[in-house]
């Protein structure tokens, strides 16, 4: 019965189906998400004292997938063959929704450290758990502190551990790509690491930005071929940004594509 309600809810114009799903969201999905955050956040914190950050971070996979299943979010992954599990990358992803985190943590399938805004550090259980497993907080209002955080993060990026950025810096309201910031690409050049562009599409339907208007839906995660930084210098940063922008843009729906970084 619940699956039937979810299918009916895909379009708000279907009235009753949408209403039933919103009731289901408040009665089950949101309390379930809070419970999962408490349970797996606590597990990540405790396990971080006896395990490596890589193993402790695996709690996030269960947290993300159980959240997605409850919300009837279906995932389709393309391009996994472009990932070398022994290679570290600077991963860059477009940012449409809070559910981007669910999709990436649950299905990307590589060990990575997130570069996230300082405000998330204040979220109970989740914020401290992210800190314990090695994710990187940056204060976007304090450039000197942000640079210091990124410098510290460089020490964690090796032996197949990657670092992940949303290079737009914030979620988009239209789902079209916003201009990229340079931080991710400067780190890739400093460390001599390839950039791995990833496109997410559909999370903005599951939950639009600045909204709790949750809906079931399909999310596409496209992993593009890595972009080598070999032989590049800081003079090539705009070229690297444009190549990454074009790769991510290429898998967005036609009405959401743009042309320049």
In CATH, the topology is named Glycerol-3-phosphate (1)-acyltransferase
Calculate the mean pLDDT score and round it: 86
Q: Write down the CATH class.
A: Alpha Beta
CATH architecture title = 3-Layer(aba) Sandwich
- Please give the largest β-sheet: 7 strands, mixed
The number of helical segments is 10
- How far apart the termini lie comes to 45 Å
* Morphology: globular
Structural class: alpha/beta
- Specify Rg, calculated over alpha carbons: 18 Å
Molecular structure report:
This protein is of the alpha/beta class. The chain has one domain (74-256): 3-Layer(aba) Sandwich (Glycerol-3-phosphate (1)-acyltransferase). 41% of the residues lie in helices and 14% in strands. It is built from ten helices and seven strands. The chain has a seven-stranded mixed beta sheet with strand order 1-7-6-2-5-3-4, sandwiched between helices. Helix 6 (126-132) links the parallel strand 3 (112-117) and strand 4 (136-138). Helix 2 runs antiparallel to helix 4. The chain starts with a helix and ends in a 12-residue tail after the last helix. Residues 1-12 have low confidence and may be disordered.
What's the topology here?
Layout lengths: L1 H7 L7 H32 L5 H4 L2 H12 L2 E6 L11 E4 L5 H9 L4 E6 L8 H7 L3 E3 L4 H11 L8 E4 L17 H9 L3 E7 L1 H4 L10 E7 L13 H13 L12
Parallel strand pairs: 1-7, 2-5, 2-6, 3-4, 3-5
Antiparallel strand pairs: 6-7
